[in-house]
Amino acid sequence: MGPSKVIKILYVVIVVLAGLFLVSPFFIPIIFGATLSLALFPLLLKLEKLGLPRKWAAMLVTTIFTFIISIPLFFFAIKGTIAVTHQLEKFSQNDRYQGQGVQEIVVDLRRAVVLMVKKFSSKYEFLDFLDERKINQYINTFNDFLLNFFRQTASSVPQLFLILLVMLLCLYICLKYADPIRSFFKEVTGLNEERMETLTKLYIRASRQVYLSNIVTGGVQSLIVATGVALLKQGDFFIVFFVTLILSFIPVIGAAPVAFVFGILAFFKDNTSAAIILAVVGIVTGLVDNLLRPWLASFGESKIPPGVAFICVIGGALLLGFPGLFIGLLLGSYAYDTLPIFWHDLKSKKDSDLT
Q1: SS (H, E, C) 145-191
Q2: Bigger pLDDT: 125 or 273?
Q3: pTM of the full structure
């Protein structure tokens, strides 16, 4: 390797590291903006076919997304986070939840959980360590984890507003300069036109699944569950809707179990009618997931297995908080769908070198 090549490599490394350092505070909004541009790119193409120039098409898409989706979702997330934080604080500070006997009538979530675990652990000797004190300790730990999770989001409202602005700017830039960005990425990766086209379609497909399929399906499911719980006076509509929507993004868990949990609590409160109705609501919610999601997935679906997606979502949430629910699933889907393309490309080049 000659000196000139070494200098070129050092130059590229230094410039890339400096650039990453400068934009590091905005990694999250940049990721959101770039991935949203992929999800909305087909809409941009349709506007261009109608005769709208790329600049104005990108501006129109960004404006529509800002005022119809982005800003309402932003305030919804903030309001939901504050409401859930308030409820968790009440739950952790209320003395009536402490020191309750498991033989008393179960009238709240904590005692319901304690009673169920006690009944289950009494059947198996190796679970004898799960006494009431230990169960309450685990519940408190889980409650504290959720409380810290939502407190961090609630305390960063100014930063979230800045993130929103950067995300929208990045969305517009990625839509307007989609072709140059694609050409640059193709040059850097060294992919041919066919593989680059396949890669682009995979990125668009995975993005549309996360932002279209998951949000729409989760919203419908959350509306069904929250309406059922509120009408039966088993919980607050807004909080149930917000929590169910978050859980709908987590593979394996989903939204349906929320209705079943409230049904179990209603049963423990001797409200059998509400328990049966909520069980039906849970079944309907599951049917919505099995019917609506596949139809929306026809607009673009990642092939990532549910188990892998679950790990990516949880890992993203632990590392990045609330935004990690989306970013974890996005990055996991991208990696699972696109890595084979690079692997096959490297393998074909290696085979050609051997021949």
Answers
A1: HHHHHHHHHHCCHHHHHHHHHHHHHHHHHHHHCHHHHHHHHHHHHCC
A2: 273
A3: 0.70
